[in-house]
UniProtKB/TrEMBL annotation:
Phosphorylated by CheA. Phosphorylation of the N-terminal regulatory domain activates the methylesterase activity. Residues 156-341 form the CheB-type methylesterase domain. Its EC number is 3.1.1.61, 3.5.1.44. This is Protein-glutamate methylesterase/protein-glutamine glutaminase. It is an enzyme of class 3 (hydrolase). Residues 9-126 form the Response regulatory domain. GO terms for biological process: chemotaxis. Signal peptide: none annotated. It comes from the Bacteria. The active site is at S163, H189, D284. One of its GO terms (cellular component) is cytoplasm. It comes from Paenirhodobacter enshiensis. InterPro entries: CheB-like, CheB_C, CheY-like_superfamily, Sig_transdc_resp-reg_Me-estase, Sig_transdc_resp-reg_receiver.
Amino acid sequence: MRSPDVPRKVLIVDDSRTIRRLIKSRLSRDPRIVVVGEAEDAYQAKRLVSELSPDVLTLDIEMPGMNGLEFLRKLMRVRPVPVVMISAETQQGSERALEALSLGAVDCVGKPGPGALATAFSDLAELLYCAAGARLRQPQRSPVKAASSVFHWNGRVVLVGSSTGGVDALEIMLADYPENCPPTLITQHMPKTFLSSFARRLDSKVAPHVVLAEDGMGLEQGKVYLAPGGETHLTLDWRAAPLCRLLWSEKCGGYRPSVEVLFRSAIPWANRISAVMLTGMGRDGAAAMRRLRDGGAECFAQDEATSAVYGMPRAAIENGAADRGLPITEIASAVLGTAQS
């Protein structure tokens, strides 16, 4: 097991000298990180991975010759290393980022646009530090839409929080959801444009209908509502019928959308809630999840063995919000059991 005192070795792979310099500058401020090399294309990166044995890579998706996706596919097959993708926050860029996550990348961050260089990659050091210890998985076949099954909803609403590794975890969880699943609200840490693509991706793969949540959207059986991110947090309003509410607010604990904000909004109706904490770094949502449980909610956390990064689930278990971790393959069954009449 790697000592926490030993700096994580990072290899930066990007064809842009400006981006490489910017990333290196940001990482140089964190003593837990040491940049051991830079590569301007996939061929140079292949050689440096072999020579330097980095703990984690940053990898640009768009590069001349062999692009980042091709390199990632070969890397995961021959010499798996934790990878954080750097992608343009466009529709095409976000779709390729999600493909990278399905190929085994740990996470993906947006490339800064014009005028955004001053604040770009501000959280990258923390992400790379956590990613260096992430559990890598072999790329799997895409989940297939589940067949309709007998499910009688008891009126309970499901809330889910996830972060690093959450794309894979959510696909696995929702693949076991029936077409007439309980209404489910999800906050996944991800840039806004990536979330739009992720909603479409999930909707094409699983039996329920997956949509980006809108303000005032009523909750319906058979639908999954994904936080749209950007300038808003997703919250639950159940003063009359249950509704999605978008809260225009500052980041909470460094996140927007925030799991803490979603879970906190449901505390008044805790006895009608089932809450789930999936893989991710940090503690976002753990405090509010404990308050949900104290109010009567059924609460679950992903176990360490199947979490890419065991941060958020660990926090939920350590503070008593959940009794124990469950493998990701058992989460849906446990949740559906609480929402079945």
